[in-house]
Amino acid sequence: MLLEVKGLCVNYGHIEAVRDITFDVPEGSITTLIGANGAGKSTTLKTLSGLRKVRAGQVIFDGTDITHAAPYDRVKMGISQSPEGRGCFPGMTVRENLDMGAYVRTDRKSAAYNQDMERVLELFPRLEERIEQAAGTLSGGEQQMLAIGRALMARPRLILLDEPSMGLAPKLIQQIFSIIDEINDQGTTVLLVEQNAAQALKRADDAHILETGEIVRSGTGAELAGDESVKAAYLGGNI
Ligand code: ATP
Question: How far is the CA of 16 from the centre of ligand 1 (A)?
Fold first, then answer.
């Protein structure tokens, strides 16, 4: 297992946003957390990035207990996040944003670094065309690409993707999901949080459904996609 989450509880004051959730992310997999608004998906990812404090439970990454590790150290260990709402630096260029993703790396003048930059620009040719453009002037879809590209620049073993399809047109959603497949095929483990359950379950090896802070169902993506109650609740009756 690359990531093990054991009995995780996270609060905002008295609100229990995440309650005793347990799940694993196998190395090389696409694992997805799906659920409605407010289910606790983003809180889970932020906690795995070290941005929220754990009230109880444990997070193990590649055998090391990182429950209380600082965000910076987690990025160095190989976890990086593409946040919900993208979070690009609007006044900086596309290139500068991508460089920011690599701030923990000590090899920024190396061939390996340049190769990673090339790989990101190959995945996202639109970013290459706009490399000197201010990120704040990119379209929503392009900013989403930039957020994923920036996370990849840290050379993660595990990438955390928070609602990459949010607010995108259907054609672009397809494109983003194909790129997620490609990132996974190239060897990066993916933990994907999505409200677009149909797309997420289609490509997930493992899937977990969150409801009001708790995991209520787990299975393979195919199992959950084929389940009548999941279809009715999350897939608008079809997939
Ligand atoms: P969405 O799909 O709408 O982004 P989500 O599943 O990602 O939803 P979270 O954002 O993790 O859900 O929210 C889980 C719960 O925690 C919600 O009840 C939300 O209101 C609450 N919450 C989230 N952020 C805060 C905050 N900063 N302060 C107080 N409560 C919060």
Answer: 10
The protein residue whose alpha carbon is closest to atom 18 in ligand 1 is: 38
Residue 150 belongs to a domain: yes
Residue 203's domain comprises 1-78+157-239
Same domain, 72 and 139: no
Per-residue pLDDT reduced to its tens digit, 192-236: 999 889 999 999 999 999 999 999 999 999 999 999 888 888 877
Pocket flag, ligand 1, residue 85 (CB < 6 Å) = no
Query: b/e string for 27-59 if b means 16 or more Cβ within 10 A?
Result: eebbbbbbbeeebbbbbbbbbbbbebebeebeb
Q: Is 12 in the pocket of ligand 1 (CB under 6 A)?
A: yes
37 and 143 inside one domain: no
pLDDT band (50, 70, 90) for residue 110 = confident
| Residues 162 and 211 occupy one common structural domain | yes
Asked whether residue 116 falls in the same domain as residue 217, the answer is no
- Please name the residues in contact with 121: beta carbons below 8 A apart, sequence gap of 6 or more: 127, 128, 131, 149
Does ligand 1 have an atom closer than 6 angstroms to the CB of 39? yes
**Is the CB of residue 105 less than 8 Å from the CB of residue 72?**
no
Ligand 1 centroid distance, CA of 153 (Å): 27
For 77-88, write each residue's pLDDT tens digit. Answer: 999 999 887 789
Number of domain units in the chain = 2
Ligand 1 neighbourhood includes 15 CB (under 6 angstroms): yes
**pLDDT tens column, 58-103:** 999 999 999 999 999 999 999 999 988 778 999 999 999 999 999 8
